[in-house]
Design brief:
CATH topology of the largest domain in chain A: Heat Shock Protein 90
Number of strands of chain A: 28
Strand order of the largest sheet of chain A: 13-12-11-16-15-14
Structural class of chain B: alpha/beta
Strand order of the largest sheet of chain B: 2-1-3-4-5
Structural class of chain A: alpha+beta
Number of domains of chain A: 5
Oligomer: heterodimer
Number of helices of chain B: 4
Largest sheet of chain B: 5 strands, parallel
CATH class of chain B: Alpha Beta
CATH class of the largest domain in chain A: Alpha Beta
Number of strands of chain B: 5
Distance between the termini of chain A: 194 Å
Strand content of chain B: 15-25%
Chain lengths: ~700, ~120
């Protein structure tokens, strides 16, 4: 090929070739026997090429010999040029300097064959810039798909009036579907994906595309059932109708915000509606500000020294100590105290407050509420008063109270209840059994029955029974009680009261006996009068005499009655009885001698002795000593016989001269000789001597002496 | 009433009041009865029963120091008829004796005789 350089044209070509600013060389193909390209031979190369390749002269050398390592690659590229007859551009990184070189292989006619001119250009900078761009693209794509926000690029479709009507999705990231619920949007329009989409979306993007001004907004899309936070921006002049949209479905956040707003509103309503006072205090609790609620303190104003202004003097120390304690603990406090409100009234407040801390744990304020408890305090006071009055009343009225917890068996007695049961107050723990123990054995079954009946029926327990006190004292009590029941009508408590009615029962019994006795006595008296009248009759022939005697005897009986009535001491003194009878019969003291120990006669015996003395005195006046200048000795003595006290009474008359003696068995004699043995279990003798009459009465003293046991 | 409605009847009077007892005795004897005992205290029946049957007992309830109800029960268990004669009301009688024949004081003689006659007639 060197001989062809002599051609002037060739020389010109050579000069031009040499003048190329880029490295260049001319190679001719070496074909194998089968016509395939097997090697290339360098025909010529310019100086830049020599520099580029780092060789002095390469002409005449073959590729395989010179660069055996890379020959095959290049031979393949060259073969393509020969085959196509078109230039081929190859960019390869140099193994020598790591630069990128662009080699342009251009076929050129060379004699009757074709040679190839290879020119080399360093494209390292361009290549690296492209690589960086590709990398940026990849990063963008990665970002695009990995962000949580939805991102899309849309092309706005305008109506005739230039208003955005719809938009087509050009690009959308992976998050798009999750954020919108729209599937496979690329190439589709919004209205085709969601026909009901609100108009303002297209209008907004249209406006952004036209104005070129990005917008940030939040808006709900009822059609999608979502709420979006959107940043939309124009893509730029290259794509005038395109808008990039970065958005996020903030429905959850919105819902939470709404819920928070509702909750705050409710709290505010609560504060407004509460009957309490909501307040806050300065960190040292000295200043108060009303936050809401009722104006329990009147108009508090901005902030005030509440301790000095509202708390009444006598409660201030208490409140201060409670607050100091809370401050020391950094914990909540609760205090009940009296306050003087702005209008001067005094009321009770119950206040609670809790400290509010900042991040450092320092108290920034106290938050609390106060309730008006004036009514409660008053009712507590009234209950106290009521309890005190009940206690007083039960003590004064001697009312014993009980409270029986049926379920637990616990029984509470008032002080009086202990006393009535014969215990010291608090000496024992009351129980039902303890109570039953004191009930009189004869009344116990009835008491149990009445308690059980009241419990079953729900009616009042009303009972009168006896309590046997330990000293043997038996007390009658009247008890009334009532059971309390729960919702299932189970008895839970029994409350009751009882009073001592022993005195009343005694009086009633006394009265009952009196009435019965009075009836008995009146009837007996009539019977007696009849008997006396009949017995008096035989001894008198003369009616006047009979009447006198009868009246005398009835009067004697009457005297016994009046003596007994006068001295309800149940006994009659024998001496007194005798003297009174003598006085009635006008016996002068000088005519008689009365002597004997003190003897208390039962009413029954008194009645008989009175009648006997009466008869003896009457007889004596009529027939004996008293009718003359005689003398009477009335003497009695007592003697113990067979463990009973016997009284022995003698009536002895001394008459100065003999007088006709009535020896008939008259009323008086029968009284002494028959009635005394019969009724008094004693003896009676009636004898007449020459010197006078002797009557002897002997009978045991009865140990009973009740007024109710006499008979008349 | 015949002249001797209680003829041959053996009767005991338990009465602590001498006059009443005396009066009752006269009454019964006039009506033909044999009053086998007049006593102010509860009597021992055996000696009286030895002499023949006791046809009736006239009883006062209040014997001064005691009441005669136990004696009435003894009589009832011995099938001896008795009649209460008392100043008390019938309400005074204890439950088991509430149905016993009863005459309230003061009672006239005819009433006592009639009561005892009916009592004895009711037994035979």
């Amino acid at each position: 090929m060197a001989d062809r350089l002599h051609d002037p044209g060739e020389t010109l070509f050579a000069a031009a070739f040499q003048a190329l600013p880029e490295p260049a060389c001319l190679v001719e193909p070496i074909f194998g026997e089968d016509g395939t390209l097997v090697d290339l031979a360098y025909v010529t190369a310019n100086d830049r090429m020599a520099e580029q390749l780092g060789v002095d002269n390469i002409a005449g050398q073959t590729l395989r010999r010179r660069w055996p390592d890379i020959a095959d690659d290049w031979i393949r590229d060259f073969a393509q040029v020969f085959a196509s007859g078109e230039p081929v551009v190859v960019i390869r990184q140099s193994s020598r300097d790591d630069n990128y070189y662009q080699t342009t292989l251009t076929p050129v006619p060379f004699g009757d064959t074709t040679a190839v001119m290879a020119t080399i250009r360093d494209v390292s900078n361009e290549h690296r810039a492209r690589a960086r761009h590709r990398e940026a693209d990849a990063r963008y794509k990665l970002l695009f798909d990995t962000i949580d926000e939805g991102f899309c690029i849309v092309e706005v479709i305008f109506d005739d009036a230039g208003k955005g009507r719809d938009y087509r999705f050009i690009e959308a990231n992976d998050a798009f579907v999750g954020q919108t619920g729209l599937i496979d949007p690329i190439g589709k329009t919004m209205r085709s994906l969601e026909p009901d989409i609100e108009d303002y979306w297209a209008e907004t993007y249209g406006r952004i595309a036209r104005s070129g001004v990005a917008e940030r907004f939040e808006s709900a899309s009822p059609a999608l059932g979502r709420w979006f936070d959107v940043f939309a921006f124009p893509i730029g002049e290259n794509a005038p109708n395109q808008v990039g949209i970065l958005f996020e479905d903030v429905g959850e956040r919105k819902r939470m915000e709404l819920a928070l707003r509702h909750s705050e509103k409710r709290l505010q309503s609560l504060i407004d509606a509460t009957s309490d006072l909501i307040f806050r205090l300065s960190p040292d609790c000295s200043l108060m500000e009303q936050v809401g609620g009722k104006q329990l303190l009147g108009d508090v104003g901005e902030q005030s020294d509440w301790l000095e202004r509202f708390v009444i003097d006598s409660d201030r120390e208490l409140v201060r100590s409670v607050i100091d304690d809370a401050k020391a603990r950094c914990g909540p406090f609760h205090v009940e105290n009296r306050v003087r409100t702005a209008d001067g009234a005094v009321s009770w407040l119950s206040s609670r407050a809790v400290p509010v801390f900042d991040e450092d744990g320092t108290i920034t304020e106290w938050f609390g509420m106060a309730t008006d408890i004036t009514a409660r305090r008053h009712s507590e006071q009234q209950i106290d008063h009521g309890a005190q009055m009940l206690r007083m009343a039960s003590e004064i009225g001697k009312v014993a109270l009980w409270d029986w917890n049926v379920e637990s068996g616990e029984l509470v007695w008032s002080d009086e209840h202990f006393r009535i049961e014969g215990y010291e107050v608090g000496e024992v723990t009351p129980t039902y059994e303890l109570w039953a123990e004191r009930v009189h054995p004869e009344d116990r079954a009835e008491c149990d029955r009445k308690v059980a009946q009241a419990m079953r029926s729900g009616g009042d327990y009303v009972n009168e029974y006896r309590i046997c006190q330990p000293g043997g004292d038996v007390r009658w009590v009247s008890a009334r009680g009532r059971f309390l029941y729960d919702e299932q009508h189970r008895p839970i408590r029994m409350l009751g009261a009882l009073i001592d009615i022993t005195q009343r029962r005694r009086e009633e019994e006394w009265q009952r006996l009196l009435v019965a006795e009075l009836q008995h006595r009146v009837r007996n008296l009539i019977g007696m009068v009849r008997s006396v009248a009949r017995l008096s009759a035989p001894s008198h022939r003369n009616v006047d005499d009979y009447v006198d005697h009868l009246i005398g005897r009835l009067q004697a009986m009457g005297r016994t009655q009046s003596t007994l009535t006068r001295s309800p001491g149940r006994t009659v003194d024998l001496s007194e009885l005798v003297r009174e009878e003598l006085v009635v019969h006008a016996v002068q003291p000088d005519m008689c001698h009365v002597d004997g120990p003190e003897v208390a006669l039962s009413p029954h015996a008194a009645e008989i002795v009175t009648l006997a003395i009466h008869e003896l005195a009457t007889n004596s006046v009529k027939y004996g000593a008293l009718g003359d200048t005689g003398y009477i000795r009335i003497i009695w003595s007592t003697e113990e016989k067979e463990s009973r006290t016997w009284v022995s009474l003698r009536w002895q008359e001394t008459a100065p001269r003999g007088k006709t003696k009535n020896n008939r068995k008259g009323f008086g004699r029968r009284l002494i000789e028959e009635r005394v043995p019969y009724e008094l279990e004693g003896m009676g003798r009636f004898t007449v001597h020459d010197t006078g009459m002797l009557a002897e009465l002997e009978f045991p003293l009865s140990d009973t002496g009740s007024i109710l046991e006499t008979r008349s | 009433m015949t002249d001797n409605p209680l003829a041959g009847r053996r009767i005991i009077i338990l009465e602590d009041d001498y006059y009443q007892a005396h009066d009752s005795k006269d009454t019964l004897e006039e009506a033909g009865a044999t009053v086998i005992a007049v006593t102010a205290t509860v009597p021992d029946l055996a000696p009286h029963l030895a002499g023949g049957p006791i046809d009736a007992v006239l009883i006062d309830i209040n014997l001064g120091r005691s009441l005669s109800f136990d004696f009435a029960r003894t009589l009832r268990s011995n099938a001896i008829p008795f009649l209460f004669l008392t100043g008390y009301d019938a309400g005074m009688l204890p439950e088991d004796l509430a149905a016993s024949p009863y005459i309230s004081k003061p009672a006239d003689r005819a009433r006592i005789v009639k009561g005892l006659t009916e009592l004895i007639a009711g037994q035979s």
